[in-house]
Amino acid sequence: MKTSRFLARRPGAHMQLPLTPMIDVTFQLLLFFLTATTWRQAEGQLLGSLPDPRRQVSQQAIRQLLKPLYIHLRTEAGGAVVYDLAGATFTQPQPLQQHLAALRQALGSDEVPVVIRPGWNVPWEHVVEAHNQVLKAQFRSVTLIPSR
User: Fold this and answer.
1) CATH, residue 140
2) Predicted local confidence at residue 141, as pLDDT
3) In this structure, what are the phi and psi dihedrals at residue 25, rounded to the nearest 5 degrees?
4) 12, part of any domain
5) 39: number of CA atoms within 13 Å, CB side?
6) Phi and psi angles of residue 11, each rounded to the nearest 5 degrees, phi first
7) Where does residue 100 rank: exposed (0-12), middle (13-18), buried (19+ CB within 10 A)?
8) How many distinct structural domains can be found in the chain?
9) CA–CA separation, 108 vs 69, rounded Å?
10) What digits encode the pLDDT tens for the residues 63-93?
């Protein structure tokens, strides 16, 4: 029986796989995944901090600390979202931020807790927008709680 010269092994010779094509494919896959990946911040993280005990807080703010500000979010028949804050009603987030900033200045403290209470059918983007407006008004304590 005749063997092919490619299949014949010399005694003591070791077979070696060609590694160059495997390395090329590995680098191409690495390049593909690096360019096809969307880099973004992880979802579901909200920044928070505890009050600074060294800050001076006015007496009115101390009394108000026991009473948080509630922002109720609800949808109307047309699908518009309404923000209710301490008897004031807003249909846009910008006036809500201005009203919150005025309240913060009147209270003399940014330690007053703000509670955002969305209705069960309010889209999440409006809840996040309310949270952003509270942060723009420079309140430090923001809480999200579900409606009943």
Assistant:
1) 3.30.420.270
2) 84
3) -65, -40
4) no
5) 3
6) -65, 130
7) buried
8) 1
9) 14
10) 655 688 899 998 988 888 999 988 888 988 8
Side-chain half-sphere exposure of 100, counting CA atoms within 13 A: 33
Task: Look at residue 137 and tell me if it is in a domain.
Answer: yes
Instruction: Estimate the crossing angle of helix 124-136 against helix 93-107, to 10 degrees.
Output: 40
- What distance lies between CA 127 and its chain's CA centroid? 12
Contacts of 82 (CB under 8 A, 6+ apart): 73, 74, 75, 76, 89, 90, 91
Q: What is the DSSP string of 5-53?
A: TTT---TT-------HHHHHHHHHHHHHHHHHPPP-PPTT-----PPPT
The size of the chain, in residues, is 148
Reported as a single tens digit per residue, the pLDDT across 3-25 is 555 556 666 667 788 889 999 99
pLDDT at 113: 86
Residue-range definition of the domain harbouring residue 67: 59-144
Give the CA angle between residues 120, 123, 128 to the nearest 5°. 110
Share of residues in the chain with pLDDT > 90 (%):
18
Q: What's the distance, Cα to Cα, between the start and end of the chain in Å? A: 87
Q: Is 45 contained in some domain?
A: no
